Amino acid sequence: MAQQRRVQLSTQHPTSTACVLGTELSLDVCGSAPKGAVTFQVQGTPGVKLYVVHETQSVKLPSSMGHWPLAAGTEVLLTMDTLSKDVGDEKVRISYFGEASGMPMGRAMLYLTCVEVSLEADTSRSGAVSRTLLDKETWTWGPDGHGAILLVNCDRDDPQAETLDNRDTAVRSYNGTAASHTENPPFPNYFFSPPLSYTSFHPPDLKDMSQMVLRTRGPRTIFTGHRLVLHVDYGDADKVGVFYSGNSMALEEYKHVLGGSKLDYTIKPARHQDESIFYVEGLAFPDVGFSGLVAFHVTLLESPEKGLLEIPIFTDTVVFRVAPWIMTPNTAAPLEVFVCRWVLDGWPHPFQSWIRSHIYDFLFASVEENEDFVSAVRSLAETVKCPLTICPLRENNNDRWIQDEVEFGYVQAPHKTFPVVFDSPRDRDLKDFPIKRILGPDFGYVARKAPEGASSLDSFGNLEVSPPVTAQGKEYPLGRILIGSSFPRFGGRRMAKAVKDFLMAQRVQAPVELFSDWLQVGHVDEFLSFVPAPDRKGFRLLLASPSCCYQLLKQKQEEGFGEAAMFEGLEKEPKVTINEILANKGLQKFNNYVQSCINWNRDILKRALGLAEKDIVDIPQLFHGDVTQGAEAFFPNMVNMLVLGKHLGIPKPFGPLVGGHCCLEQRVRALLEPLGLSCTFIDDFYSYHKYSGEVHCGTNVRRKPFDFKWWHLVP
């Protein structure tokens, strides 16, 4: 339905107004009628289409039918579909008649100027702004949906800048200036380049933003008596920033005109240019109290007599949705692997600091404890031709748990995609790593804090995402986020409300809560993982299984290998035979409890992810501990693995040797290699396992985004 505006007329003096293309004017013929008038006649110039709506008629009728009775509810409607060449070049005359129907008792003249005022964005999601008949004031999901998309401008295009791009009011390029803009920036383009039409003439910071185009056509002198104002609702102003350079392409001419404390901006249309291009950045991700939807308006104000306030005569609106942060699953192709170097614990802290600042490079080889682990991870990364980034001691301060500190994801709009690292509230010695080493051009950053104090469940080993699934008739093409919590018991640890609320608000990967507080550390990656598979759903869910492990050990005992011992080759570890493990009733009772906790999660995962038993692989694993302190892996936890495509880096379990081979490794190979997977067992016993973590905890991976576009989803 066309936007309609009521216009007051007068028989005492002519009235002038602007008619915006595509709108409808309703003329108040009764309000301006002289006393005694009973009928009226409407006439207009060729550029005006006139209709009369009478109370006895329910449809619009052409106005050329002569005199019309002047009755309550009668109105004249007009539209214009051709732009004016001059101000007031189209006219409407209304003549009023009395009972005698002779000469008119009075006339009301209306001078019209047809102009175009239109606020446009990429509502068709094609990657470019174009004219469209789509409803710009609504935003809809799905493959046939419409609505513009904003990226949170959370990268740092100028490496010398002190803050993220969305925390300043400047437009930046890779070296902080526009003059040296190049199509081959020094920082790698992580996913893909935007269309050339969008990138060729814009500094990198602008490429992170979405275009919003104001089109104004018609006689330029009409804007002498009218004002165009771009504005944003008060509640949305702190979620967006808008930049504008007028007619200039120079970087330094781009000014911050809207957002924050700036709620409106007066636009002066250029004399010889129909389009004004604005660049819009998101400042905040969807979260509690912010759905992600932001509306921008352009209003045409008409100036009445001097001393009176301006009158709004037309408003156009366009709605954007801020793109969500999206996680990638283990089954996605790896793009970059991260690992930390670290040294022996127990050194006096000042001594560690002195080594890092003075003779770090000289002594590093002699004090590094995880050299073999780093080499094994490097070898695995080289196998899949994936770059390895090593966080050195001077940057990690002996904090090895890089999986717990950050989670890699991405944001996406039709014109651009870039990775964004999510920094956990954990904030231990790796807390500066994502800011100093990861944040940069086309690599964004987001963080959430835990004001109530962070627990172990706020580390991101407790944050995983499934591959795409369909469950209970609903599709989850971007998978579902998995987080650990304390239910079904009360009073335990839970993920920080700020983190959980953030994940829920993204909407596209509907989180599932699992029970993980039974573990001493409490992370979901201690009992589950996903690996790619060539059949069924395209993946398998791996679950740690004490019962599977006991079955294997009993089988080996029956085969005559009861005296085969765990931890052969580890000089510091007492050897425990299969017979001793099976005879330990306390250990078996505790693992029965652990198995019941995993079974609870198994049932949740089957329902939430739409899995059948054939989609699940049980990995033999034992735990020890007690109900009060929580469970830990009895031997290196093989589920806590590094997944790089079909190549798996699995913690070496040091299981009983049967026929010269570790029976635990043999069982895992028998389970996974038929799926086309390659198993590499990595010794992490003293470098990670003894500190309550494994291979997955000590590594991290940035992965390829989903091919599926999130806006095609129906939440």
UniProtKB/TrEMBL annotation:
Its main location: cytoplasm. GO terms for molecular function: calcium ion binding; protein-arginine deiminase activity. It is an enzyme of class 3 (hydrolase). Residues 313-712 form the Protein-arginine deiminase C-terminal domain. Residues 115-302 form the Protein-arginine deiminase (PAD) central domain. Its EC number is 3.5.3.15. Keywords: Calcium, Cytoplasm, Hydrolase. It comes from the Eukaryota. One of its GO terms (cellular component) is nucleus. It catalyses: L-arginyl-[protein] + H2O = L-citrullyl-[protein] + NH4(+). Residues 1-113 form the Protein-arginine deiminase (PAD) N-terminal domain. It is found in: Cytoplasm. SUPFAM superfamilies: Cupredoxins, Pentein, Peptidylarginine deiminase Pad4, middle domain. The keyword Hydrolase applies. The active site is at D404, H523, D525, C697. Belongs to the protein arginine deiminase family. This is protein-arginine deiminase. It comes from Ceyx cyanopectus (Indigo-banded kingfisher). The gene is Padi3.
